[in-house]
Design a protein that fits this description.
This is Putative ABC transport system ATP-binding protein. The chain is an alpha/beta fold. It has a domain of 177 residues: P-loop containing nucleotide triphosphate hydrolases (Rossmann fold, 3-Layer(aba) Sandwich), CATH 3.40.50.300. It contains 10 helices and 10 strands. Bound molecules: adenosine-5'-triphosphate. The site of adenosine-5'-triphosphate (ATP) has 10 residues, from helix 1.
Amino acid sequence: MSGANEPIIEICHLHTRFGNAVVHEDVNLIVQRGEIFALAGSSGCGKSTLLREIIQLQQPESGSIKVFGCEVQGMGGDQATIMRRRLGVMFERGALFSALTVAENVGMPLREHTDLSSALIDEIAAIKIALVGLPESAGSKFPAELSGGMRKRAALARAIALDPELLILDEPTAGLDPLSASSLDELVRHLKELLGLTILMITHDLDLLWGVADRVAILGEGRVLGEGTMKDLSKSDHPMVREYFYGPRGRAAWEQTWNRK
Ligand SMILES: Nc1ncnc2c1ncn2[C@@H]1O[C@H](COP(=O)(O)OP(=O)(O)OP(=O)(O)O)[C@@H](O)[C@H]1O
């Protein structure tokens, strides 16, 4: 695995607007290999839009987005396919195909992107299902038969099906009860270590920010308002950043974190 200081995502002077509404005025950030980088910020500040731009589901107005050193805007054909193989995405609602079993869902990227035999795909799917802590029996179930936490794990298994270098998680713990959320936190950290992943995640979950993220960028007012470890950010003077730490939810998460240590 390469060392630190190898940018995996580089966003430079990104500007995005919908009609007259400017979402990103001038966003700049770098995600380094091997880190868990979280994007936080109030609702509507443009986190999901940024994620969609990184994975080419949306076009910014101007600026640059490089993933693995290559500009993604205008990237097409084989280069785009190769890039997509190197990254796994878990969407907020899991986005599993309801008519397919968990094993078929997890095997889907392998069917799309490789020439592996069905038997081998089934074997790899079973390994990924075990890796995310689901029982073997979950493979033959349909998404609707699983709990919310199990569905997130199944979506995670699918996101790592192709052994990505970069894993993008959109609100991984949204909608989970605190116990399931905290076991998912542990799983994310465990997978990062085990698979040598770089992880970019969008989250509002303060426990995830404090407990799992190596660095955090807080988006707001069309730009990155603050960036660093949660400890660094807790010293920021910016009122919107301070709200994260010294608003009621922020204080509770802070206290919980220090009590755990
Ligand atoms: N396709 C679109 N057309 C028009 N406006 C859009 C579109 N997508 C997003 N927006 C607007 O852009 C802004 C940013 O949306 P986005 O979903 O990126 O925010 P967010 O930070 O992810 O919010 P949340 O935390 O609530 O998910 C919002 O005001 C949203 O209404």
